[in-house]
Write a structure and sequence with these properties.
This protein is α+β, with helices and mostly antiparallel strands. The chain has 6 helices and 9 strands.
């Protein structure tokens, strides 16, 4: 596994190497743009297990979780690995990511199985293993090459949510807050 301190950003990095979440709880497929301490754009395509028993719709709570995994967990893990000069695997031995709070969330539309979306996250605060992020979720036009689309993306575009008109706004999220807690905080038996 590659150490975070050997890479400049998360683009091209495998999300499963960055996150603790197991295969059925990992709601992140790819990182497309990342500027440490600024923000990130990541994508996910809901699978059949994600919409099971929920009318074929990717639940709003799962959208919030996907956004959190893309932003506060991925970006926080990256920055903490840089700071501690360790790999994500080494960091996972010491810390567990946890929600602290969820601010306002406004849903404008829904997502179904197979509809790719991007989480566009802006980092508002990062200190003492705690991160706060705002952002949006957009449904991606079908057959769009996201890697190519975001290749030359920049901070100004991120700040203005400057995406093409054919991206559909799904949700706006505010003050999504998480913190890496020491593992000994958790008392759940394995």
């Amino acid at each position: 596994m590659e150490d975070c301190f050997n890479i400049e950003n998360l683009v091209g990095f495998e999300p499963s190497q960055m996150l603790l979440h197991g295969p059925t709880k990992l709601l992140l497929d790819n990182f497309h743009w990342h500027e440490p301490k600024i923000g990130i754009i990541a994508s996910y395509t809901p699978k059949s297990r994600d919409v099971q028993d929920h009318f074929g719709v990717f639940r709003g709570v799962d959208q919030i979780e996907a956004f959190a995994q893309a932003t506060i967990v991925s970006c926080g893990t990256f920055l903490e690995c840089k700071k501690l000069n360790c790999s994500p695997e080494q960091l996972k031995e010491r810390f567990v990511p946890a929600f602290i709070s969820v601010g306002n969330v406004n849903f404008h539309n829904y997502l179904a199985e197979g509809e790719t979306f991007v989480s566009v996250g802006k980092i508002k605060f990062y200190k003492f293993r705690q991160m706060v992020s705002d952002g949006r979720i957009y449904k991606v036009p079908s057959d769009l090459d996201l890697t190519k689309y975001f290749k030359d993306f920049n901070e100004s575009q991120l700040n203005n949510y400057d995406l093409g008109a054919d991206f559909s706004l799904i949700a706006e999220l505010f003050d999504i807050t998480g913190r890496a807690l020491k593992k000994e905080t958790f008392t759940i038996d394995k």
